[in-house]
Amino acid sequence: MLRHKLIALLIVVALLWIGLPIERSQAADPVTITYWHTMSPAETEQLAKLIELFQKANPGIKVEPTVYAYDDFKKALLTAIAGGQAPDAIRMDIVWVPQFAQQGALMQLDSALPDFKKIADSVFPGPLATNLWNGKYWGLPLDTNTQVLLWNQKAFEAAGIKAPPATIQEFAEDACKLTNGTKQYGYALGGTYFWAPAPLFYAMGGKIVDDKLTTATGYVNSKESVVAFQMLVDLYKKGCLSPNLLGGGVGTAQGHATGLYSMIIDGPWMVDIYKKDFPDFKVNFAPIPTGPDGKSSSVVGGEDVVISAATQHPKEALAWAQYLVSEEAQLFMAKVGVMPVLKSLTGSKDLPPYFEVFMKQLETAQARVPHPKWSEMDDALNTAFQKMLKDGKPVQDALDEAAKTIDGLLAAK
Amino acid sequence: MSQANLNVDSRRASASITVKPRLRLSAQQVTPYLFLLPGIILFVTFILWPMLYSLRISFYDWNIVKAERSVYVGLQNYQDALDDPIFQRAASNTLFYVLVTVPGQMIFGTLAALLLNQRFPGRALFRTLYYLPVITSWVIVTLLFEFLFNGQAGLINSILESAGLIREPIRWLADSRLIMIPLTLLGIWKGIGWTAVIVLAGLQSIPMQLYEAAAVDGAGTRQRFTSVTLPLLRPTLVFLVVVLTIGAMNVYISGLLMTRGGDPMNESHFVLTWMDKQTFENFKFGQGAAISYLLTAVVFVVSLVQIRLLQREVDYT
Fold it and tell me: B247 CB near a chain A CB, below 8 Å?
């Protein structure tokens, strides 16, 4: 009997303990907001210092950052959102914003932030546009980037070419001059996903859809778009474009530094990659060569900061997001290679010198289709490009097919 | 507390309960369930409940943020999945993978087990070596195979080239058919060790007398293998076929990494990598759940058929 009483007593004590309210002095404790991101180790370190600055200025708020690997991030976010455990603020890839907004996972910021208009006016229009879905803004631009031409000076000198190509025509000619069988290729792409050919595609006047996102027919299969892909297919057929883009080859970063690929097109992070992996290699940047109309262009990349629709601390999360686009925060992160989105910082002496070519390129760079179904559109373009290269499918036919697929995606609710 | 005391206690406890007729379960009847409870809670929370929940998702156009916004679509997700050429291709790729890797693992695993069952110096070392691939992470060995089969700088190509077997490098990973070669080789190589361990256990449970009796009856090595070893290994082999088939149908990580999510042209997907892409890349949660359930149904039916077909009793008594 004693045993039973003992057990009963234990259970009562346990229940009491579980039910006991946890004491907290609500006024004094700061509100903790969670912030998830996918920054590099160097950027993450800098972010920790930035958070300290923010917390000093805002003693009522504590920011708790969590870093994820880019490839796991979408899954981690979806799991957290589905489980009602979404972080308060998130730094996410610009092409994900419409997709998460459509799910209803994000807070609409143009109505929630009183200063939204002022912020919108202070940032580059390209990055800002990536937050727009369904006529409303779901995030703030956080950092931006674009791709420019990287040219291997040694290879150029050996081939007797003095300067990087200024026009697409020169680019195509140089690519073949810089090719030597399978030992050296003039140009290499990282893959067939749209990000890779996008800079040349846009520079040559290519378009995927109309500005109102209603149709791809007449855009992705327009004359300009066809000519752009045709140029790449021709380079591939002549052996001036490395076959690595189809998969299972030497990566572009490594191949460029070792002289296998004389030209690649890539982003500002290459500086840090080469500093670490190929410290002796000198990186040379140049603008994307100009298309037939004499204009250069490229593709906008980067991240936006968004607020979870389910946040318990909207005020604090908004304050953090707003701080991230402040001049102080933008300059602070620029020190580790994060490109700012503020117009006022163009030409700033506090920015690393290699930013200049990227900032200049950003003036003409274009955003990919801001649509929740972008990943499927990307897939359609990827497939079209693969068919041109592997099956020898005529460029026009492949893009006609892609136009049809993308039209279907635009029409679907 | 001593054993005797415990017994007295429990007797006293049950005695006191029988006095009160209101309680139907005696402490002794309840105890096993109490011990099972933690396991059952875990099973229900992390396996049964998610399974039923995803079954529900598969009938909806699911919204992950607000479940109440989801639209019921009946069997539409299943219909769409089956009609999708990418799914069909993924299913046939998976079937191919099963048909190649399951016999491959069985044959090489059994051979390895027969070798490792012999007495020879360094046997323990070899047993360890054969098991090494099994405990190595899928991610690491997949990357390793990617390096080996690299189209521009891979070891396999350079061996084939120096042996004069090929003139131009083969781009293994750029072709949806060729890429199945490294994928299936990886599957077989990684599974041999585990298969061998199971077969080895089966081999060691065969009584030596049977071999002696067979030898007395004049059976040679080959006959002893076909008349004694194989029939007595049958339960082990049935188990292996079923488990390896289920495992092969669930092929995922190697495909995800090596094909970069179904590249080229979504033609090199397995069922699960396509499920992953539809769910987490394209946000088609209902579609993803439906694909999972289609796979589950196939695994279930195939396993039943295999067990029925292969499990015949062997009686040597």
Answer: no
* Domain A31-144+301-362: CATH class, spelled out: alpha beta
Bridge partners (DSSP) of residue A36 are A66, A90
Using a CB-CB distance cutoff of 8 angstroms, which residues of chain B are in contact with residue A1?
12, 16
Tell me, yes or no, whether B191 and B264 share the same domain: yes
Q: Is B171 inside any structural domain? A: yes
Joined together, the tokens standing for residue A319 give: 């304050």
**Same domain as B162, residue B43:** no
- Domain contains B66: no
**A266-281 burial code (b ≥16 CB/10 A, e <16):** bbbbbeebbeeeeeeb
User: Which 3 state secondary structure label does DSSP give B199?
Assistant: helix
- Which structural domain, as residue segments, surrounds residue B9? 3-57
**ipTM for the predicted complex:** 0.79
Contact A103 B283 (CB under 8 A): yes
Residue B280, chain A, CB below 8 Å: the answer is: yes
In A, which residues are within 8 Å of B179 by CB distance?
Answer: 247-248
Query: How many CB pairs lie under 8 A apart between chains A and B?
Result: 90
Number of domains in chain B: 2
Whether B151 and chain A come into contact, CB under 8 Å, resolves to: yes
Task: For residues B41 and B113, state if they share a domain.
Answer: no
The CATH number of domain A148-298+373-411, selected from 3.40.190.10, 3.40.50.12500, 3.30.1490.190, 3.40.1280.10: 3.40.190.10
- Tens place of pLDDT per residue across chain A (413 aa): 567 777 777 777 666 666 665 555 445 578 999 999 999 888 999 999 999 999 999 999 999 999 999 989 999 999 999 888 999 999 999 999 999 999 999 999 999 999 999 999 999 888 998 999 999 999 999 999 999 999 999 999 999 999 999 999 999 999 999 999 989 999 999 999 999 999 999 999 999 999 889 999 999 999 999 999 999 999 999 999 999 998 888 999 999 999 999 999 999 989 888 988 899 999 999 999 999 999 999 999 999 999 999 999 999 999 999 999 999 999 999 988 899 999 888 888 888 889 999 988 988 899 899 999 998 999 999 999 999 999 899 999 999 999 999 999 999 86
Look at residue B60 and give its three-state secondary structure: strand
